[in-house]
Amino acid sequence: MVKICCLGAGYVGGPTMAVIALKCPDIEVAVVDISVSRINAWNSDTLPIYEPGLEDVVKQCRGRNLFFSSDVEKHVAEADIVFVSVNTPTKTQGLGAGKAADLTYWESAARMIADVSKSDKIVVEKSTVPVKTAEAIEKILMHNSKGINFQILSNPEFLAEGTAIEDLFKPDRVLIGGRETPEGAKAIQALKDVYAHWVPVDRIICTNLWSAELSKLAANAFLAQRISSVNAMSALCEATGADVSQVSHAVGKDTRIGAKFLNASVGFGGSCFQKDILNLIYICECNGLPEVANYWKQVIKVNDYQKSRFVNRVVSSMFNTVSGKKIAVLGFAFKKDTGDTRETPAIDVCKGLLGDKAVLNIYDPQVTEDQIQRDLSMKKFDWDHPIHLQPMSPTAIKQVKVVWDAYEATKDAHGICILTEWDEFKTLDYQKIYNNMQKPAFIFDGRNIINPEKLREIGFIVYSIGKPLDAWLKDMPAVA
């Protein structure tokens, strides 16, 4: 019986291993983490992450061939294949600060694997890592191997949050990179055999190590670039009276371009896009490619610009100040159908409004008050360290109130900011909301999910990203 162990019980490790256990009943899968609270949550009725379909998969396999444990060394020692899915935060100090990946957790994982191993192992990189990480890991393992053979593979994840289980059931592709040696080929085949339980073989792509590592960064950079491209267009649309939805629809009909990832918004978020592009920039700079680095830097700059442009629009529309004004924030997660708030644009928007002394009432159907308070008081990049190394529960920000209902959030508010495209926000009773708000009542739609004309008929002053401006807004400066 093949034994698999995954180091790291987060957004990647948990769902991926659950699906492997479901699809490969003959394989024993253990997910290990040093965070006891996280493991306890995986073993409880309330899983530590929300993902549609995840709970069903876990319940079918848990205790049968899927186990969650904090006894890290035992399970690593027993495993034939070890997936490493630990944090790779952006460095906050030292060389490459603000761009390079911090491999502290990766390195300690590799040293621990070398220490406890008594049999040959295949070690699989699963978390997003900078190109050439495998080489560094290989060196650590080989110099500490005590005669044991380790093969390193890169098997990057391409999961989209909100659809992770579906993505795992029916992946576009599974990418496996390994050494171009007989031993490397054998290790690639062993991992390929696991995925072949349910993934068509023509969708399993085998490459060298560096191609696999770089493909992950490239895929995320290309996706983020599309969002920044349409967001750059949204600013021009507002200036000219064009409608970004019509423009992106027309552009997306070109089969060479396609329609996906062309929705204008308040900006992209999530744990990977910014981190991976920063990583790509750093690798380009280290390899003497400043022009390439600058090209990718612009993708992040446009994303930051879009968030600050949104905040400016809110403040300038509301008579150039939101000081003491109540703003309802609908949605805090970085996108719908997930409770994940990592790098969510909502953080920068809320901080921008708080900087002008606004009072925020925040509602998100999946994000807890503790998480929102932590996110708004944490330093940049702190979120990407293991939970036990993050700052302790912060003192609550007095100007922030977290409520559990959109109507409660909008009661007596001067304005509403829609920052996540949750379906429920499309069907709210906006007449009821309008009746309970201060007048003039403003709505700033950062996701273009509401019908501006209908809301204007009710009486709202509406700003939708990249859409023709309200007569009211045309007379206001775009920047506070």
From TrEMBL:
GO MF annotation: an example: NAD binding
Keyword line: NAD, Oxidoreductase
Domain of life: Eukaryota
One example of a Gene Ontology biological process annotation: UDP-glucuronate biosynthetic process
Pfam families linked to this entry: UDPG_MGDP_dh (PF00984), UDPG_MGDP_dh_C (PF03720), UDPG_MGDP_dh_N (PF03721)
Enzyme class, broadest EC rank: oxidoreductase
Pathway annotation: Nucleotide-sugar biosynthesis; UDP-alpha-D-glucuronate biosynthesis; UDP-alpha-D-glucuronate from UDP-alpha-D-glucose: step 1/1
Gene3D superfamilies in UniProt: Cytochrome c1, transmembrane anchor, C-terminal, NAD(P)-binding Rossmann-like Domain
Catalytic activity as recorded in UniProt: UDP-alpha-D-glucose + 2 NAD(+) + H2O = UDP-alpha-D-glucuronate + 2 NADH + 3 H(+)
Catalytic residues, chain numbering: 272 (nucleophile)
GO cellular component: a single term: nucleus
Keyword Protein biosynthesis: no
EC number of this enzyme: 1.1.1.22
TM regions (residue ranges): none
Residues given in the record as NAD(+) binding sites: 8-13, 33, 38, 86-90, 127-128, 161, 272-275, 342
Domain UDP-glucose/GDP-mannose dehydrogenase C-terminal residues, every copy: 328-452
InterPro entries per record: 6-PGluconate_DH-like_C_sf, NAD(P)-bd_dom_sf, UDP-Glc/GDP-Man, UDP-Glc/GDP-Man_DH_C, UDP-Glc/GDP-Man_DH_C_sf, UDP-Glc/GDP-Man_DH_dimer, UDP-Glc/GDP-Man_DH_N, UDPglc_DH_euk
Family membership: Belongs to the UDP-glucose/GDP-mannose dehydrogenase family.
NCBIfam families assigned: NDP-sugDHase
Protein name: UDP-glucose 6-dehydrogenase
Organism: Kalanchoe fedtschenkoi
